[in-house]
Amino acid sequence: MNTLYIIGGGLAGSEAAWQAARMGVKVIIHEMRPRRMTEAHTTEGLAELVCSNSFRSDDWEYNAVGLLHEEMRRSNSLIMEVADAKRLPAGGALAVDRVGFSAQVTKRLMDHPNIDLERGEIADLPPADWRSVIIATGPLTSESLADKIRKLTGEEDLAFFDAIAPIVHKDSIDFSIAWYQSRYDKSGLDGSGADYINCPLDRGQYYDFVDTLLSGDKTDFHEWEKSTPYFSGCLPIEVMAERGPDTLRYGPMKPVGLTNKHKPDEKPYAVVQLRQDNALGTLWNMVGFQTKLKYGAQAEIFRKIPGLENAVFARLGGLHRNTFLNSPKVLDSTLRLRNEKRLRFAGQITGVEGYVESAAIGLYCGRMAAGEIKGRPISNPPPTTAIGALLNHITGGHLSVGGSSQTRSFQPMNVNYGLFPPINIQNSENGKRLKGKEKSRARRRAISVRALEDLETWLHGFSQAAE
């Protein structure tokens, strides 16, 4: 029997092992704990939850993460099966007993006849005779292995303080204030000369914004994060603002080369630009607005920007030590390393955020690797599904900027409806024209229903291929 080697026993590695083992593949999980602990883990258990004990919303009809829960349940996910069994009261969210959850996942994996567990750090790249490998080492990949991956991929910035800019749903932007335009109307490669969304500020609005930014409630670093430097090309916006009140106006908020089409005779004092963030054009990131402000402060402060008063954020900004690949550049559509296809990557190291998202990519990777080992290739899930939408984001649905690690814009992402192909909803079932929140709610449910229908078709094809 050919063997699948999985490095990392977190959520992604555990789910990948379960899926492959159920398909009849021999699996060896390599987990370095407890022989070597990370700065965040406290136990030796597989699938340890190191932060929150919440898997977030469990509403499949109107919440993208709840939809992902349902897709994973229908895909025989071990992580979701145990989460349901260890569920705690949490309203509409899925929260679990973290100790019981990890213990049960560990027991289920160890009880499976196709799975073995070996303790100890894999500090180097896997030996050449490991023909099928999944690396699922998460955001706290050991320094030694991270260094080897960095050298193999050619990426110089694999581990750093990951300063993330907020992402906004385009349909929540007020275009009676905002407008499309590139600086000096330059089109660039494949551009139109109107490649950015621009939000103008007058003099008073700008300085009020800077004052609010500087006084906003900010996230403290964990002790083990304090020695990790900022990514040199990605300083938090409030750190830039601390260098002087006009720093932003001559940096990411500079107004040069832009004319407000709504008020062509009034030159903006400063401008916030948003750049398209996914191929569908549904998500736009705030250029230069990576931040360590707390989430509540971000939402309050950024909605003071003209045109973003009603902004709906697909993701708020953040700053933390992270390890992830520039996946659209270095991984193929099945998450294999382009220059060494025996190596697959799963979980947060691929550029997804969240417990369930990491496990979902593990589920996908385990199935793909097992199908490959058995000589029965399996098709990718449709991009209309939550799993497929996440996969599409990390393998090419995201729009990269430039070719080097210094200019890359790819950042980790939670699942959200902005990653799905749009669906046109105009009228309710009784023919009434939908507007506002009612229309948005109907669109979310339609996307969710379509996703589950398409998932069932994919699962049926998967079953036939796996037989």
Give an overview of the whole structure.
The chain is α+β, with helices and mostly antiparallel strands and about 475 residues long. It has two domains: about 5-160 and about 325-465, FAD/NAD(P)-binding domain (3-Layer(bba) Sandwich); about 165-320, Elongation Factor Tu (Ef-tu), domain 3. Helices cover about 30% and strands about 15% of the residues. It has helices at about 10-20, 65-75, 80-85, 100-110, 145-155, 205-215, 235-240, 295-300, 325-330, 355-375, 385-395, 435-465, and strands at about 5, 25-30, 55, 85-90, 95, 115-120, 135, 160-165, 165-170, 180, 195-200, 270-275, 285, 315, 320-325, 335, 340-345. The strands form four sheets. The chain has a six-stranded mixed β-sheet with strand order 6-2-1-7-17-16. Strands 10-11-12-13-9-14 form a six-stranded antiparallel β-sheet. Helix 3 (about 80-85) packs across helix 4 (about 100-110). The radius of gyration is 23 Å and the shape is globular. The two termini are about 15 Å apart. Residues about 400-405 have low confidence and may be disordered.
